[in-house]
Specification:
By secondary structure, this protein is an alpha/beta fold. The protein has two domains: about 160 residues, Aspartate Aminotransferase, domain 1; about 220 residues, Aspartate Aminotransferase, domain 2 (3-Layer(aba) Sandwich). Helices cover about 40% and strands about 15% of the residues. The chain has twelve helices and twelve strands. A seven-stranded mixed sheet has the order 2-8-7-6-5-3-4, sandwiched between helices. It binds pyridoxal-5'-phosphate. Pyridoxal-5'-phosphate (PLP) binds next to helix 4. Pyridoxal-5'-phosphate binds next to helix 4.
Amino acid sequence: MAIAPIILRRMTSAQSVSGNVAQLKESATIAVSQRARALKAQGRQIIDLGAGEPDFDTPEFIRNAAKKALDEGATRYTAVEGILPLRQAIADVTNAHNACETVTPAEVVVTTGSKQALFNSCFALFGEDDEVLVPTPAWTSYYEMIDLSRATAVPVEGQASRGFKVTADDLERHATDSTRGLMLNSPCNPTGSVYTPDELSDLVRLAAERNWWVISDEIYRRIAYDGPAAGLLSVARNRERVVVIDGMAKSFAMTGWRIGWAIANPNLARTLTAFQSHTTSNATTVSQYAALEALKKKDDAEAAIEGMVGEYRRRRDAALQLLRAPGGPTVVQPDGAFYLFIDVQDTDPDSEDAGSAFTTRLLEEHGVAVVPGIAFRTPGWIRLSYAAAQESVVEGVRRILKLRNTLIGR
Ligand code: PLP
């Protein structure tokens, strides 16, 4: 059978578009999902462990709030930066989580998903000749967003034995006079690693000494298995050059509602708002009201999140039990998010990227979609999302182990 490799293509030829997007590549996660969909359309049964999307419905109390808001007229433009009650609720939740009292609504900009908050922050802060340190592996879009801002993403690889978490020394080794920023993500996509407060403190201290901007993507902070993941604001002494990104998508199973936010100093918040005013304007009005209800109804929200996180934990544990059997592959200990990052380099030690070949064979021959580590700038690894039914996760892991055993000749 001819196997179509999953490769990341440039989107367009350099002649037909401007230099702004000439280097743009399609997202690997989307490429895998598309291939999985195409195979399903041909009648194949595919276990999709590629998508980074909660498989739960948005909790009912949030959906009901949206219906009510629509009936009450939440159909018009709002302030570009979002409705004040939502920005207040975001400030309150942030202050409670970080045990800090400083965030005010003037520092909150509500965006169309956290993706927009991340892009706008990169675009506003970085430019030509700037370098931005990206602890790697990291979510595929950071590299593209930094590129789109015409800055250079500098991957900083931590040690696999530390869950790829970087140290201040690792960052220092990659810093130059052009370094202007640091992109953090804890809990991390794709590894599931969670930085401790001390580890975060070390990184923030170095960034403050060097006057770097720190963008901290905390979109998975509620999905953590050993208590809440530390937020950057709980350790940063000075917030002036810190931008915290968060949103509703992952913790509240609200991916399609497109609500995220940036928390930044008031001047930067105004700049982000002005930028947004010329591009997308306010995030969808009815979604803002739904998010407001989710953040305000704390008991209902906690019950919903606890239920989902409990389910993710059961799936993670079931998958780890299989993966950690003797002779199994190296897997990063996932303390948060809903991903397993698995080393498959030994399935083809001479290859520069055994992960992509493995991903392709796994999908085409065994009907399981995962994402190759190259998407996170870490060839030789694969990422499995356990935001899927437990039976699918377990069956998917069994097939991964079977393919691996075949390839390493066991
Ligand atoms: N940040 C990380 C690390 C992610 O994994 C994702 C989605 O996969 C996002 C941001 C984007 O989230 P949103 O749906 O809020 O745009």
